[in-house]
From TrEMBL:
Organism: Myceligenerans indicum
Domain ABC transporter: 22-257
Presence of the UniProt keyword Transmembrane in the record: no
Subcellular location: Cell membrane
InterPro entries (UniProt xref): AAA+_ATPase, ABC_transporter-like_ATP-bd, ABC_transporter-like_CS, ABC_transporter_ATP-binding, P-loop_NTPase
Source taxonomy: Bacteria, Bacillati, Actinomycetota, Actinomycetes, Micrococcales
Stored Pfam families: ABC_tran
Coiled-coil region: none
This protein's UniProt keywords: Antibiotic resistance, ATP-binding, Nucleotide-binding, Transport
Membrane topology qualifier: Peripheral membrane protein
Designated name of the protein: ABC transporter ATP-binding protein
GO MF annotations in UniProt: ATP binding
Segments of this protein annotated with the region Disordered: 1-20
Amino acid sequence: MRTESAPTRRPATDTGGRDTAVSVRGLHKAYRSRGPGGQGYTQVAAVDGLDLDVLRGEIFAVLGPNGAGKTTTIEILEGFRNRDAGEVSVLGEDPDRAGRAWRARIGVVQQDSRDLGELTAAEMVTATARYYPDPRDPAEVIDAVGLTEHARKRARALSGGQRRRLDVALGIVGRPELLFLDEPTTGFDPQARRSFWDLVTGLRDDGVTILLTTHYLEEAAQLADRVVVIDKGRVAASGTPDSLGGPDARTPLVTWLDGGELRSLRTDRPTEAVARLAHEIAAPDGEIPGLTVSRPSLEDVYLELIDAPGTTHQSTEEQQ
Ligand SMILES: Nc1ncnc2c1ncn2[C@@H]1O[C@H](COP(=O)(O)OP(=O)(O)OP(=O)(O)O)[C@@H](O)[C@H]1O
């Protein structure tokens, strides 16, 4: 009775003829890793033949378990890390060779906050704005990230979530065409996360292309026009948040207990299924034991796509 959706392995390179902000073909990056028992070194692939395209003006989310290769990929696109092989174009240039003019067109919010020193939040945003040819108004940026109240605090004295907002302010003050957000809302309270989502969709509506990594599947579902799931350095699936995992992945799921055993059924006709169960196995009080009817969320689909949740690669030596 049960219908399963098979994980899809479609390329993340279907642009429908639209302009691309980022194009990646056959990307490879390996790190040196100590061999078994600490003997010698081997190369361990962090990114293992990745293809993807990010369209101009879209929010594109990169999902995947810890160690999947997301940050390595993003840092290669940002020009902060060398690749071993593959073609990469970001705003029409190869990040390995691009210069200052190119860097001024991108905004970066990395996973780790920068060293915040002695400056106040406002001073940091103002100082950063000076590096760009056409920056946004620092006060307006501070306001947009919800830091006005804390603008005169030393950056070091901000809370974790407030520092993350400052990171975002520093990433957008240069008026980037393309904004990289690597796990931007880690440590945000739910209200701050929602106002951050408004900020990001507002940037997209102004024409900014946004490449986002996140472990919050709800964030990807809310924000992203398209998502890619990376697993073990490769694309496991890609598409719009609603289409990820193939046409059957979001089919409603009916679960119930039959003689204490959990049973489930994927069906487009859940009412009919429940009526049949009510007829066949309902208890004397008319209830179907343990009955639930749900539509799989992006998180459910994601967890089915990933071989084993929490999979990590072998630990490796620190390298550039
Ligand atoms: N500088 C480095 N030196 C050596 N190995 C590294 C380095 N950076 C990452 N790795 C390894 O490469 C693999 C991919 O790491 P990466 O940080 O790209 O994953 P990720 O998907 O961003 O993970 P997370 O969700 O935990 O941030 C992991 O096995 C990691 O240990």
